[in-house]
Amino acid sequence: MLAVVAIAVAAYWWSRVPRVDGDTIALPIAFRTPGGLLEVAGINTTETFTKTSLLTIAGINLGTTVSQIQVPVTYRYQIGLAKNWKIHLRNGKLLVIAPAVMPSVPVAIDTSRMQMRTQSGWARFDGRENLDSLLREITPELEKTARAPHYIEAQREQARKTVTEFATKWLVTQERWKGVRTNQIQVYFVDEPIGKLRTFGPEFGGAL
After folding, report:
1. Cα(first)–Cα(last) distance of the chain, in Å?
2. What gap in Å lies between CA 145 and CA 48, rounded to an integer?
3. Do the strands 185-189 and 86-90 form a parallel or antiparallel pair, or are they unpaired?
4. Following DSSP, what letter does each residue of 89-142 receive, concatenated?
5. Element (H, E) at 197
6. What is the pLDDT of residues 112-166, one digit of tens each?
7. pTM assigned to the model
8. How many CB atoms lie within 10 A of CB 31?
9. Domains of the chain: which residue ranges?
10. Mind spelling out the 3-state secondary structure of 61-82?
């Protein structure tokens, strides 16, 4: 009993070990991804963020503070393996309708190559505050950008190749899909316009 209490006390003490600055140590927390995730595509780019602050008092312009941050960004996109995958087989051709891709967040940035600058107006002394405020805005803004339709479309064809590869290596090994020719696998995503499915066959409004 004493041993159990000692272990519990030691665990609590370790979780509350103070750092030099007086804060407590943030211990790593492991988490699981229910059903697993399939990473299907990514986008590398450089994003620029600007924050402008204009101050006037009694109609007098006290100047404008402008802060700018430029940072390399990697957007990654994934699909939940536990989500509903629709699979249709017709005349030896396999149609896979995969779930819509979703961005992995928070978005990855390369701080080693991040560039920051700020310039204050003639009667302004808030350059550092303006820059700090801009820094706090980057993560939510990147998440919005990752979900933007033009970014989703930009990665779609690379994602299609990955899902096709996945279907070729895994689905066709299942008993139900044996005999399917790997060059007859077509992949679409559930959020694509339904008109694209017409290329597969009459059940989707097209011709064989």
Report:
1. 74
2. 12
3. unpaired
4. EETTEEEEEEPPPEE-SSPEE-GGG-EEEEE--TT---HHHHHHHHHHHHHHHH
5. none
6. 999 998 887 655 566 788 888 889 999 999 999 999 999 999 999 999 999 999 9
7. 0.76
8. 5
9. 2-204
10. EEEEEEEEEEEEEEEEEEEECC
